[in-house]
Specification:
By secondary structure, this protein is α/β, with parallel strands linked by helices. The chain has a domain at 1-152 and 209-226: Acetylglutamate kinase-like (Carbamate kinase), CATH 3.40.1160.10. The protein is built from 9 helices and 11 strands. Helix 2 (33-48) links the parallel strand 1 and strand 2. Helix 6 packs parallel to helix 8.
C-alpha cells in the first residue's frame, strides 16, 4: 500500500491490531462485553462496506507474559500462557462479530482444533477473499515475540495494505503524554525516527519488520466511538508511521 493511500485511501485489506487491554473497558481484569460489541460493530460495518478485515488481538487483560517473567516465572512459559489468553479474547471477538452479522474465523498459531483453525497463510487469505473476518490469535506461536510483532508478520503474510494499531492514546508522541502534558503528537513519522528515538508506539522488532516490508502503520485512539470504523475506512486519524515523511 502506498503511503498516500494509507494517509487517506480506503484499504482493500487491513489488519486491525487490538491490545488485550482494549477489551477491559472500566474493568481491572477480563473482557467487557459492551466493549467487545462496540469494537465488533465497527469492524463489521467496515466489513459490510467492502474492506477485508483481519484482526490480531493481545492477551494483556487476562495474562501478561512479560510481567509474569519479571516476577520470576520462566519467560517462555509465561509467554505461552499469554498466547492462550489471546485465544480467549479471539473467541470473544468472534462471538461479538458474528452477532454483528460478520462471518468470522479464529485462526491460531498454536494448534487447538476443537475451538479454532490452525493459522495457515493461504487459508487465511482465502477466508478474507470469501468475505470472512479473520481473527488471528496466539501471537506468532513462539515465545519472546510480542503481539505487535505478530500483527506485523501477519499483515505482511496476508498482503494487508495497512496495520491499524488501536490504542488508548491518540497517536505517537515525542514523550509520554501522561507524564508530560506538553508532549508533541506526530501526525506522520518515519520508521527510523520511531526506532532512533525509542518512541513507545510499538516494539522495535515490529517497527523494523514493517520498515523492511514498507508496511504503513496507523496508531490511533480506539476509545473514541467510531474511530475503529474511521480507521478502517482510511480516514486520516492518529499518527501514520511510514517510510516517507514530508519535509
Amino acid at each position: 500500500m502506498s503511503t498516500e493511500a494509507a494517509a487517506g485511501g480506503v484499504p482493500r485489506r487491513a489488519l486491525l491490531k487490538l491490545s488485550g487491554e482494549a477489551l477491559l473497558g472500566e474493568r481491572k481484569y477480563g473482557i467487557d462485553p459492551e466493549i467487545a460489541r462496540r469494537i465488533a460493530g465497527e469492524a463489521a460495518e467496515a466489513h459490510r462496506e467492502g474492506t477485508q478485515v483481519a484482526i490480531v488481538v493481545g492477551g494483556g487483560n487476562i495474562f501478561r507474559g512479560l510481567a509474569a517473567a519479571s516476577r520470576g516465572m520462566d519467560r517462555a512459559t509465561a509467554d505461552y500462557m499469554g498466547m492462550l489468553a489471546t485465544v480467549m479474547n479471539g473467541l470473544a471477538l468472534q462471538d461479538a462479530l458474528e452477532q454483528a452479522g460478520a462471518p468470522t474465523r479464529v485462526m491460531s498459531a498454536i494448534a487447538m482444533n476443537e475451538i479454532c483453525e490452525p493459522y495457515i497463510k493461504r487459508r487465511a487469505v482465502r477466508h478474507l477473499e470469501k468475505g470472512r473476518v479473520v481473527v488471528m490469535v496466539a501471537g506468532t506461536g513462539n515465545p519472546y515475540f510480542t503481539t505487535d510483532t505478530a500483527a506485523t508478520l501477519r499483515a505482511v503474510e496476508i498482503g494487508a495494505e495497512v496495520i491499524l494499531k488501536a490504542t488508548r492514546v491518540d497517536g505517537v508522541y515525542d514523550a509520554d503524554p501522561e507524564k508530560q502534558p506538553d508532549a508533541r503528537r506526530y501526525t506522520r513519522i518515519g520508521y527510523t525516527e520511531v526506532l532512533s528515538n525509542r518512541l513507545q508506539a510499538l516494539d522495535a522488532t515490529a517497527v523494523s519488520l514493517a520498515m523492511d516490508n514498507r508496511m504503513p502503520i496507523v496508531v490511533f485512539d480506539m476509545t473514541v466511538d467510531g474511530n475503529i470504523l474511521r480507521a478502517l475506512r482510511g480516514e486520516v486519524i492518529g499518527t501514520l508511521i511510514s517510510d516517507e515523511v514530508p519535509a
